[in-house]
UniProtKB/TrEMBL annotation:
Reported cofactor(s): Mg(2+)
One of the record's GO molecular function terms: DNA-directed DNA polymerase activity
E.C. number(s) listed in UniProt: 2.7.7.7
Species for this entry: Niabella pedocola
Protein name as annotated: DNA polymerase IV
Residues where Mg(2+) binds: 9, 105
Assembly and oligomerization: Monomer.
List of catalytic residues: 106
Cytoplasm recorded as keyword: yes
Protein keywords: Cytoplasm, DNA damage, DNA repair, DNA replication, DNA-binding, DNA-directed DNA polymerase, Magnesium, Metal-binding, Mutator protein, Nucleotidyltransferase, Transferase
Function: Poorly processive, error-prone DNA polymerase involved in untargeted mutagenesis. Copies undamaged DNA at stalled replication forks, which arise in vivo from mismatched or misaligned primer ends. These misaligned primers can be extended by PolIV. Exhibits no 3'-5' exonuclease (proofreading) activity. May be involved in translesional synthesis, in conjunction with the beta clamp from PolIII.
Catalytic activity: DNA(n) + a 2'-deoxyribonucleoside 5'-triphosphate = DNA(n+1) + diphosphate
Annotated ranges, domain UmuC: 5-187
Site feature Substrate discrimination, where: 14
Amino acid sequence: MQRKIIHIDMDAFYASVEQRDFPEYRGKPLIVGGSPEGRGGVVATASYEARRYGIHSAMSSKTAQRLCREAIFVFPRFDAYKAVSRQIHAIFHRYTDLIEPLSLDEAYLDVTEDKPGIGYAMDIAKAIKQAIKDELELTASAGVSVNKFVAKIASGMQKPDGLTFIGPSKVATFMEQLPVEKFYGVGRVTAAKMKQLGLHTGADLKKLPETELIRHFGKPGKFYYQIVRGIDERPVEADRETKSISVEDTYQEDITTKTAMLRELEVLTEKLEERLLRAGMKGRTVTVKFKFHDFTINTRSHSLLTAFNDRNRLLDTVRLILDKADLSDRKVRLLGVGLSNFETSGEETGIARGGNQLRLF
């Protein structure tokens, strides 16, 4: 039986909750996270009014303030967002119990067999979107397809309040036309490497044999070979708690000095803060990952007494780890930074994610 997968992604979730709860913010450029006048931190979510100025998540508040002087900055209210997330999931459970959350504001749903017996995934997605709008006064975008990968890409195609269906007969053409930078999991460095090899679209990737993709991109090459053909057998996995959240990047040229490593880790730490804010998670243990030119991997961790998710403490801990690390004569090809040992479990926060780790490449 062919799967029927829906990916639901709330529209500007934190900002939309704030605008719903505080009418004075409606219609105005609102930024959740960071601080006014660019005093530090990153944007967790920006309202669509703010996005018109080019403001987006993970952007520094200083840059956001420069782009829009009228922007309103508010601190995140995670308790409120978690409460709304639980209400959203209650709506999901009317249709299926196969729900794999990725964060407070997005999730995969397997509706191959739905509780009400509706049978049509598009009708279920419409019903979910309408219930969220009517009951919670919020909007969501949905992607509907035969697997998780395509459904996730589809959900972002017509935001906000979008609904995109990519049926079985359209998947192959869709993947062939997709630019490589739009492939979920393909980051800036990998996309640049693909383009250097003349690989600009899924159709270009499809021309290479699996062995060639693995030679160029390592283990992910096998995934690229399958996904460009519309093959994604990953099931929707419910009730698995996230143990850590991390970000990492691979570099075209090896990094040889701690100064250069710290500069790259600062960039990764900003991305990690945004990911943690979106997930509403605080942890105690910071881990830095090093992959060297000979492909060996080392990790170093440091734990604090209290849980946190702000960039300053993340970066202070990263500096401490880097100072203690023995990196003499080592060439670093990949760096990563993550947070674990979370303050609360997924069940307590209303989050139960698929898989043990979230990565942003």
